[in-house]
Write a structure and sequence with these properties.
By secondary structure, the chain is an alpha+beta fold. The chain contains 16 helices and four strands. 63% of the residues lie in helices and 6% in strands.
Length: 452
């Protein structure tokens, strides 16, 4: 449990901060920003409040840098009475105060920031003297000082509002980051070269209707969907998985239309819309503002549970309908469940094959491109890819798997990959399903590697 503070604790902290302010003003002769958080209640610090403080400090330092106001001293304090920053800025104090006021008033999260500015003489600048209105109350948006002095709002109400502000701000921010990393993963997948039989930077592989720019156009068109998938996961975390997945499916159908419009009717990422979109929604369902990124194993497990809520309905529908895709035909004729079956199990090929192969290659000194190609080789050697079955039948798919299994480990050589690319292109073979799984491997690695 986070430690509660006493009135004596807060008075000691305030006195210590004031003493250090006077010392820094004397040492630097520069205006000083004193940044803390406005947090009601006896708990002033903890993982989520530290995150809010880091976000405020990032915004402040970015704004100062954008206006070419150099930081000459920077001191950070992290104690149970709250996080504190003291910044000596080489700029007119009025200009610094204007920046701080705009940050405090920018959004709901800014209302939690307390950015005082002291002149070199030690005088505290007042926002009213610069023509800015009083700070609004967090609850009623009236005059914040008046509400506080009259104690119009009880502490539990202020705490609940603070928690809601923090959750909403970071949910939006993290959904954006999840989507950005997902698009990054799609772009890394298509750019990794050479990929046997697949579109990459060097050639179009076994495809005649698409090139690398088709995939770039598609990935850009899917960004709004990927953002919605992550956000939907966060929003529906407390809802039954079936309801959440059906809402995701509607978004996915709209995303497919956007993809086809962007590519002139070429299906570049339909499989990724289904699989990667589900992974993003699963990551969203596991999201918490103070620990945003769940472990890859947990995300994959939740992905499986999420799709499993409707999987059997899907397979029953496939049994009764005329097949429209090769995957549907293989299910009806051979019982192969393809990517649907893979996802319902929690994408074991990603968790036990692709992602470990990628990370082994990285540990052996490979870059992200080489490591991705190593992951692709591991997937091709072990996954029943319905794209390969559709193009080459059982014989072609087995040949491709055996050829991929013979590649060097943990890092296949470029010469080996180029030779396999030539052979698979000559046979018109393309492991498109494995390519979608590779994108998920990249995505999970990016999030695992996140420094947040």
């Amino acid at each position: 449990m986070d430690r509660e503070v006493t009135l004596a604790d807060m008075l000691d902290a305030r006195e210590g901060r004031a003493l250090r302010q006077r010392e820094l003003l004397a040492e630097t002769g520069l205006p000083l920003v004193s940044f803390t958080l406005n947090i009601a209640g006896p708990v002033k610090n903890g993982p989520l409040l530290r995150r809010a403080f880091r976000e405020g400090l990032r915004r402040l330092e970015d704004a100062l840098a954008a206006r070419r106001m150099p930081l000459r001293r920077r001191e950070l304090i992290d104690r149970h009475t709250g996080c504190e920053a003291l910044l000596a800025v080489e700029a007119p104090p009025e200009a610094v105060k204007q920046i701080c006021v705009r940050l405090e008033d920018a959004d709901a999260l800014g209302r939690l920031f307390d950015m005082d500015v002291l002149s070199p003489a030690g005088d505290k600048l007042d926002r009213a003297e610069l023509g800015f209105p009083p700070r609004p109350c967090l609850i009623c948006s009236g005059d914040g000082k008046a509400c506080a002095s009259r104690r119009l709002h009880p502490v539990p109400e202020l705490q609940a509002k603070t928690a809601a502000v923090l959750r909403e701000a970071f949910a939006r921010q993290d959904a954006e980051l999840l989507a950005a990393q997902a698009v990054r993963a799609l772009l890394y997948e298509v750019c990794a070269s050479p990929k046997p039989g697949l579109v990459d930077r060097f050639n179009c592989g076994s495809h005649r209707d698409m090139d690398i720019f088709t995939f770039i156009d598609s990935a850009a068109a899917l960004l709004p969907y990927l953002r919605r998938a992550a956000g939907l996961g966060i929003e529906t975390a407390q809802l039954p998985r079936r309801e959440a997945f059906l809402r995701l499916r509607e978004e996915g159908l709209a995303a497919e239309r956007a993809m086809l419009a962007a590519t002139g009717g070429v299906n570049a990422h339909k499989g990724a819309v289904f699989s990667l979109g589900t992974v993003l929604a699963a990551a969203g369902r596991l999201w918490q503002p103070d620990r945003p990124w769940a472990a890859p194993e947990a995300v994959l497990q939740e992905s499986g549970l999420l799709y499993s809520a409707v999987a059997e309905e899907d397979f029953q529908a496939l049994e009764k309908s005329a097949p429209r895709t090769a995957g549907q035909r293989f299910y009806q004729e051979r019982g192969l469940r393809g990517v649907r079956g893979e996802l319902a199990k929690g994408l074991p090929s990603v968790g036990t094959l692709g992602l470990p192969a990628l990370e082994r290659a990285l540990a052996a000194g490979a870059g992200l491109e080489e490591a991705g190609l190593a992951a692709l080789a591991a997937l091709m050697a072990n996954v029943a890819d319905t794209n390969l079955l559709a193009r080459g039948g059982q014989e072609g798919a087995q040949w491709a798997a055996q050829a991929a299994g013979k590649l060097s480990s943990p890092i296949p050589s470029r010469e080996e990959l180029e030779e396999l690319d030539r052979e698979m292109t000559a046979r018109r073979l393309s492991p498109g399903g494995c390519a979608d799984l590779l994108a998920i491997c990249y995505f999970l690695h990016f999030m695992k590697d996140s420094k947040l």
